[in-house]
Automatic annotation (TrEMBL):
Key words of the record: Transferase
Source species: Paenibacillus brasilensis
InterPro entries (alphabetical): AFP_Neu5c_C_sf (IPR036732), Aldolase_TIM (IPR013785), PseI-like (IPR051690), PseI/NeuA/B-like_N (IPR013132), Pseudaminic_synth_PseI (IPR020030), SAF (IPR013974), SAF_AFP_Neu5Ac (IPR006190), SAF_PseI/NeuA/NeuB (IPR057736)
Entry EC no(s): 2.5.1.56
AFP-like domain mapped to chain residues: 293-348
Lineage: Bacteria, Bacillati, Bacillota, Bacilli, Bacillales
Example GO molecular function: N-acetylneuraminate synthase activity
Transmembrane segments: none
PANTHER family reported in the protein's UniProt record: N-ACETYLNEURAMINATE SYNTHASE, PSEUDAMINIC ACID SYNTHASE
One Pfam entry name: SAF
Protein name, entry field: N-acetylneuraminate synthase
């Protein structure tokens, strides 16, 4: 199931593909956005992702009722949807300079479109892939529009039932998507590890026959690294310069030093999976000599019978395995044998 996004290979034979999600952490400054690109590239990520929308393509300019965020547990309590998206959106004229900066620094750039006009715009910029956000994973018209480009399609699965995911994946495939990645996602901000359920990953992979990954809203990198052992090929984390700088997503975003650790540890986790194997690996063979084995622990004369005092199970491992101790007791030696001699069958 491996395939490429740009010049990066995605699949279990390759280290995890790591995406830094800028979202609204640019705080309405292009200079800050470009600084985020530089920090993301320096941390070692494979790609930077934007979100492409305007407040008008997301919602209505209404500031009360259903359009007002009253949830006391929400990071955005007290804002209307429209004002939140006005604050968070990335101006479309910024996309090209941001993408150019990514190319200059050797990382990929793509985006999440939130309506069909955003797809047309992103196609004009020749993005190498698309991402569908969790809140749009049931928007079949949008999924079909993106799938028709034929480019790799990453879909976050937050809140979606199996039936809803089946409908969305079928729609994507019927519209032309050949390479689909489903990201396990918990749509709370931040998410907690105990509500992340990464045990779903292998089931998701088997159920839909596609690659899987994680869109991780937890703090830290433990969940993302653990997910690699369960089949993750793609990891997406929100990214900012400093959480203390504020911004709509800053509270659950990674800082550059944390992202660098994630890049390193995710690759180590991937390397550690390996294959099913028993016995000494090639690199372990030299260590075999440090096992315990049987050694002569006291000088013994020719013809003398071995007693428990004459033999010890010690390191190094150049004598007979310790399991033969009882068989050796009571045998006589053929020659005078000095303390420190490794036991072998030729002594008796």
């Amino acid at each position: 199931m491996e395939f490429q996004i740009g010049d990066r290979w995605i699949g279990k034979k390759h280290k995890p593909f790591i995406i830094a999600e800028m979202s609204g952490n640019h705080n309405q400054s292009l200079d800050r956005a470009l600084a985020i690109v530089e920090a993301a590239a320096a941390s070692g990520v494979d790609a930077l992702k934007l979100q492409t929308y305007t407040a008008d393509t997301m919602t209505l300019d209404i500031h009360e009722g259903d359009f007002f965020i009253k949830d006391p547990n929400s990071l955005w309590k007290g804002s209307s949807l429209y004002s939140l998206y006005q604050e968070a959106y990335t101006p479309w004229e910024w996309h090209e300079p941001i993408f150019n900066k990514c190319a200059e620094l050797g990382i990929l750039a793509f985006s999440t479109p939130f309506d069909e006009s955003a797809v047309d715009f992103l196609e004009s910029l020749k993005v190498p892939a698309y991402k569908i956000a969790s809140f749009e994973n049931t928007d079949i018209q949008l999924i079909r529009k993106v799938a028709a480009t034929g480019k790799p399609l990453i879909i976050s699965t937050g809140m979606a039932s199996v039936a809803e995911l089946d409908e969305s994946v079928r729609a994507a495939k019927e519209a032309g998507a050949k390479n689909i990645i489903l990201l396990k996602c918990t749509s709370t901000y931040p998410a907690s590890p105990d509500n992340t359920n990464i045990a779903t990953l292998p089931h998701l992979e088997q159920l839909f026959g596609c690659q899987v990954g994680i869109s991780d809203h937890t703090m830290g990198f433990g969940v993302s690294v653990a997910s690699v052992a369960l089949g993750t090929t793609v990891i997406e984390k929100h990214f900012t310069l400093r959480r203390a700088d504020g911004g709509v997503d800053s509270a659950f975003s990674m800082e550059p030093e944390e992202m660098a650790v994630l890049v390193t540890e995710a690759e180590r986790a991937w390397q550690s999976i390996g294959r099913i194997t028993y016995g000494a690996t090639e690199r372990e063979k030299e260590s075999l000599k440090h096992r315990r084995s049987l050694y002569i622990a006291k000088d013994i004369q020719k013809g003398e019978m071995i007693t428990r005092e004459h033999i010890k199970a010690i390191r190094p491992g150049l004598g007979l395995p310790t399991k033969f101790l009882d068989e050796i007791i009571g045998k006589s030696v053929k020659e005078n044998t000095a303390k420190g001699t490794p036991v072998n069958w030729g002594l008796f």
